[in-house]
Amino acid sequence: MNLIDNFINRLICGDALEVLKKIPSESVNCCICSPPYWNLRDYGVEGQLGLEKT
Asked: What does the pLDDT look like over 1-54, one tens digit per residue?
């Protein structure tokens, strides 16, 4: 098994459409996002995005 000797993690929070434009090509192995799904998901947390009136 090959182990990774040098490992760099970075967490970037922001608007995915804007942030991804600024990231260099071929520099990301994984991108995880969780859109609010406007009224389709309820995580049971006060103040969550996606449950307000549009």
From this structure: 566 666 677 788 888 788 888 888 888 877 777 666 667 777 788 877 777 676
Distance CA 50, CA 38 (A): 4
CA–CA distance, 39 with 32 (Å, rounded to integer): 21
Displacement of CA 36 from its chain's centroid (Å): 11
Tell me the C-alpha distance between 12 and 17, whole Å. Answer: 13
Q: For residue 5, give the DSSP letter.
A: S
Show the tokens assigned to 25. 């090509």
- Which uninterrupted H or E stretch holds 40? none
Residue 19 near residue 10, CB atoms below 8 Å: no
